[in-house]
């Protein structure tokens, strides 16, 4: 009895596969498609009257088997803070407003353009930034599909762009436009839609780099201002972590002292692996502690051993990833609770990392 189940499953799979081969794919045969002929009236009957105004001819349609790319025009992505685009504009252009901390908006935009060119390992063929123009060397925006490791990587096409920067008289708003000035490809011919997609893609790369550079600038400004920071974020592995502005070496030096003042016991500091092993025991506060204002902060986490992994994020901030005694990463809910408790302790007791 127990053998009929796998046999039935095997038979079902075989029948299903064989059934797929029964039906031919008539939708892709190399023949013309023709609508049904009009109804033929027998010779012994009178042909009904048909108004010529509504008479429709029998049409034929050619079956074109070539794959067509029906893609909408590319859109300028206003991802960076202070960036915006005009509606229904037929050129690849982005506008930037001067955000806090940026001294010279035009120089900040040009640095973003240079960084994009460097990421493609390309060069600058014509540097006319004094006239608001910069022309790139050849590089490829269209990435070839990855094949097997023994296959040679194939370049689909390569392009050259001219970036045009215009700034308002008040110098608090600037626009950047990308123009395709060179295109080479043996396989993909250039048309208006492809040109628009390439130009907008070139602009979007600059917008993403502008956003990244400005986030780095914000980090530096907050460091200089000494803003208290212990935010919730993610480490390089995507795990929930505490994020601080202090650099990694500074955190390793000061973390143990900070944790001891919020009722952690530091067991071991491993400089090689950038890990700190600690033990937490919730304090037993008395009535007198609350009266004299010496009540120790209590964190809403279980008592026990924890390992803190100190790392660096993409934007050069420092991440603190917490593991429990079984080396399981604390989930986002637990990290949020921990972050709220630590921030409250930092503010109430005037502590810092």
TrEMBL record:
InterPro entries given in the database record: BamC_C, NlpB/DapX
Domain of life (superkingdom): Bacteria
Q: List the Pfam families hit by this protein, alphabetically.
A: Lipoprotein_18 (PF06804)
Question: What name does the UniProt record give this protein?
Answer: Outer membrane assembly protein BamC
